[in-house]
Amino acid sequence: MNSYLKLFLLPIILIITACTPKPMHDKDVIYSQADLEKRKLLNHTYKLLDEMQSIDAALYLNKVDFTDIINHTFSNFTEHFTLLDAPAFSKPLFGRMKINLKDQKVQSRVDFSFEVDSLNREIFGHLSARHTLQAGKNIFVIHTNFDEIVLDRIDETRPLEDNTKNKELIASAVKSFLHTLNVEIINMPLVLKVDMNILDGIHGKDIVSAKDYTLHSASSVSMHTKMDSYLPYVSKKGIILLGTLKHTRNKAYKNKINLKTLEKLLTQRLNEDLLTYMGINLDSLQKYSSYYISKAYLSKQMNKALIKMDLRSINKFFLNISPEESSFEKNIYFFDKARLPSCQGVKEDCSKRLNICNRQCSVKYGPHSCVQCDDMRNPFAQVRCLSKLEACKSKEELHLYECNKHEDSCELDNVEIKTLCEVQNLELVSICKEDKEELLFINDEIVLAKMKLDFKIANSYAVQRIRSIKFDSRLKRLEVSRDMHISVDSRLGVSIENSHINDINCSLKVKEDLLTHSEVDFVKQLRDLDVLTQRLKDGKLLIKAISKPIFMSIQIKNKPYEKLMQDKNFKLQCYYKNMPLQAISNSKLLAVKDIPYALNPILGEVELAFEDEELSFVISPVILNDNIMFYPTMEEKAISFSRQAHFY
Fold first, then answer.
1. Is residue 428 located within the same domain as residue 513?
2. What is the bridge-based pairing of β-strands 525-535 and 89-94?
3. What is the number of structural domains in the chain?
4. Do 606 and 486 share a structural domain?
5. By residue range, what is the domain housing residue 550?
6. Co-location of 416 and 481 in the same domain
7. Integer Cα distance of 210 and 322 in angstroms
8. Are 628 and 643 in contact (CB under 8 A)?
9. Which residues of 82-97 are buried (b: 16+ CB within 10 A; e: fewer)?
């Protein structure tokens, strides 16, 4: 019966047991004092990590290197107390500090020895100490407190006897003496500076030139990598210091109670943040002692220094244009074929105009009104308007006029050669009659005059302002943004030179040189330069951005030639024996396409040549002491400094 009852109750008990909720928190777990301290420390570490906006620097020292640094710093204290004149004791000696890393704690042991003068014995013992890590702005502080002073033996081999007055006397005296050391170290903690001055400075030049002028700017700025705060973390392998540029208070942080969960979350968070900002995990960081600076942080520091650089330059420059490039000649022809009007259908119009002219020249209007009719009374105008027969008559009259002109000139010659002149003139008249079908000046190859343009630079200056020079977050590109202001005072001389054809004179109303002020405001240029790295022989890392030469044409305001064309009085007039042949307006005198490329400044165009531009940073090795030196290497997301990476 009892057996059946047990079999019946057993499943019920199992179901009840399975359905009973188990405690999920630490309230049912009894922690030792050491575990409570560890949990408190882990919570504080997680809180600090949670308040870091980013991990910008990571310093890792393995146990050997950390011990070496501590002993190197601790030797200052031991030297001080070794020289201390203590009564009843002499020759105090301290050994090297031996470090033990466990449960987020740093513990150490230091062996010592004294000579007790009254006993004429040498006492050997050791100090057990606890160390707490604290990191502030750019410093790493190690607080030391000696928990225990143990006397091991007398002389080299003789152990101390228990419950002896000598042991109590010696222990009391030694503790009294070492108390001074303990208080001194507590009040004067060991301090390790973590202000890594890795950036040696900025050495940059920015050059822009335009043919015969050059603008130059250069500057050098020293930089430091300084963190807003550091977070210390003690692992089993060594000491980790995580630095951030910006630290904010996180009031919403909640303590994580479960110790194992807290350890797991903290490790997971460290891995995630290191991977995000440095491109490494916790294991990679702890391969060997190293120092990492994120490229994003380093880029910010570089850009801050670049903002301080005043890369504005004001320079006078002179465009020394050669005579071959500064002078330009334009032939002025009698009639361009393209500009000849059509004579079809103008006979009636010509007759009408001639009748009007004759009426204006009547007695009613007076002879002075005939001035308006000169264009219709000269042979050239009639050639363009009358019929073919009338045109031939006009041509004949024209050529006879030319020949008679030579005869008239004979009257001015010496009387002795008058007969010879008349004979020659008769021959010329005969030629004129035979050649009467060919009208002089109808060929557009005949040059009436030459118009000359002489371009000179009177005064020039340029202002270049670099708006910004900045690296991207991965130090792969350098962006250079600049404004430029260019001003040119140019002098444009315009003159006319006749071709010395008899009775043909051309004149230009513009007599003085045209001085114009041309300028261009804020020519914006944006360039992306590739960033290269180079390892130097002394172990330094050179970050360099070098551009390739480029050319850029800039249009300036107030183009000298266009300003000349806007002058309503700018006209060329040519006369044949006081009869106007043609009045060329400013729109037909000279086309822009006629101006050669060499005279681009006349058209308001300046070509800038940006030569090699260079900006370089030197990243120095990190030196912690005489024996520990880290050398830089460029990684994907960070610059790593390690003892293993140095090679030439």
1. no
2. unpaired
3. 2
4. yes
5. 313-331+444-619
6. no
7. 15
8. yes
9. eeeeeeebeebebebb
Strongest mean pLDDT among 148-157, 179-188, 234-243: 234-243
Same domain, 402 and 450: no
Phi (first) and psi of residue 115, to 5 degrees: -105, 125
CA 160 to chain CA centroid, Å, is: 74
pTM for the full model? 0.61
Asked, for residue 395, whether it belongs to a domain, the answer is yes
Domain boundary (434, 457, 489) is at: 434
Residues 347, 351, 357, 359, Cα dihedral to 10°: -170
Q: Which of 416, 434, 452 is the last residue of a domain?
A: 434
- Residue scoring higher pLDDT (182 or 513): 513
525 lies in some domain = yes
**What confidence score (pLDDT) does residue 445 get?**
60
Instruction: Return contacts of 397-400, CB within 8 angstroms, 24+ apart.
Output: 398/439, 398/440, 399/432, 399/433, 399/435, 399/436, 399/440, 400/429, 400/432, 400/433
Residue 282 has pLDDT above 90, yes or no: yes
Collapsed DSSP state (helix, strand, coil) of residue 197:
coil
Residue 272 has pLDDT above 90, yes or no: yes
CB neighbour list of residue 113: distance below 8 Å, 6 or more residues apart: 91, 92, 93, 122, 123, 124, 125
Q: Which amino acid is at 66?
A: F
Whether 345 has a pLDDT exceeding 50, the answer reads no
Measured on CA atoms in the order 325, 326, 331, 336, is the torsion positive or negative?
positive
Average pLDDT in the 409-428 region?
A: 64
To which residue do tokens 């020289």 refer? Answer: 83
Please tell me the predicted confidence (pLDDT) of residue 412.
58
> Are 318 and 340 in the same domain?
no
Q: Are strands 477-498 and 541-546 parallel, antiparallel or unpaired?
A: unpaired
Question: Are residues 405 and 391 part of one domain?
Answer: yes
pLDDT digits (tens, 9 = 90+) for 457-498: 888 777 777 777 788 888 888 888 878 888 888 888 888 888
